[in-house]
Structure formats: C-alpha cells, structure tokens
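Figure 3 (text version): structure tokens given as input.
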C-alpha cells in the first residue's frame, strides 16, 4: 500500500472530530517494530497521520497475542482513549478486540487479515453485530498470487 492510498483511506473512512479537536487513532502492529512488512506499513500510516493532522499511537505486540489484547484493552479504557483502533485479526483476536471496542464505544477498523469462516459466522460483517466495527479492508490474496505468477511467467518468457 502506498502513502497516498493509506492517506486517502484514513481521510475517507474516519469521522471528522469537532472544531479544535484532534482525531486520535491507535494502530496495533501485531509483529515487531522492524518486521519487513509491518515496519513500512507503520511508517506509511505515520506519514499519512501527520499529513492529516491525526494523532496516531502505535502499539507493537511482538508476535504476542496476549500482549496485543492487553494493549487494546489499555487503549480503549484509557481516559484519553482513541476515536478509532486499527488492527489485524492476528491469531483470531478479532472477536475479543471487537467486544472491547464495542464495550468502550471506540470505533474499530480491521485490515490486512479477515475472519475465518467460523469467526465470520459468529461475528458477522461490519456493523452487523458490532455497532462500532466500522469496516474492514482486506487484500485479495488469490488475485495477488495470480498476478505474481503471471508476472513471473511473462518475465521468464521474455528472458528466454
């Protein structure tokens, strides 16, 4: 995802706070701060937040499901809780995260990894069972795999 896409995504999906208020988001990185995928995602998100004057708190869970859930719990129960939390469904944490967000009236946006079929049956779709689950943005891994394979075949054919 490029900087422009994330900036546009944040601008279009997130509500605008009242005059004089700074919009506050919390991003939960499920991996490590230097992870080859999540480091650039975090950097792009921080750049987009700066451009849009959004306060962005970044939490790093270091592959630890329990730490991730504790970070979400602390964020949504804080006196200065975020307006929205941005998270990946890591190790099937979505249900617990959505319940925390709902209980504390914090909007939740899931991205990068969706629900398993079992989770989908239990949790539904955004806004279906959880009022504060405002949406999700998920990659099309099948199309990405197809496109990558096609590109590799074309490149191999060009090189002979």
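Below: residues designed for each position.
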């Amino acid at each position: 995802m490029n900087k422009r896409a994330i900036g546009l995504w944040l601008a279009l999906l997130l509500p605008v706070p009242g005059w004089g208020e700074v919009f506050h988001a919390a991003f939960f990185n499920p991996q490590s701060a230097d992870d080859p995928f999540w480091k650039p995602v975090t950097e792009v998100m921080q750049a987009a937040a700066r451009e849009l004057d959004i306060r962005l708190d970044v939490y790093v869970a270091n592959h630890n499901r329990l730490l991730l859930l504790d970070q979400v719990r602390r964020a949504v129960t804080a006196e200065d809780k975020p307006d929205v939390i941005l998270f990946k469904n890591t190790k099937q944490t979505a249900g617990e995260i959505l319940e925390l967000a709902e209980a504390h009236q914090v909007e939740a946006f899931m991205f990068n990894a969706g629900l398993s079929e079992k989770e989908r049956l239990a949790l539904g779709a955004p806004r279906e069972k959880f009022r504060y689950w405002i949406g999700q943005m998920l990659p099309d891994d099948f199309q990405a795999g197809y496109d990558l394979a096609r590109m590799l075949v074309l490149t191999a054919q060009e090189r002979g």
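The chain has one domain: 3-159.
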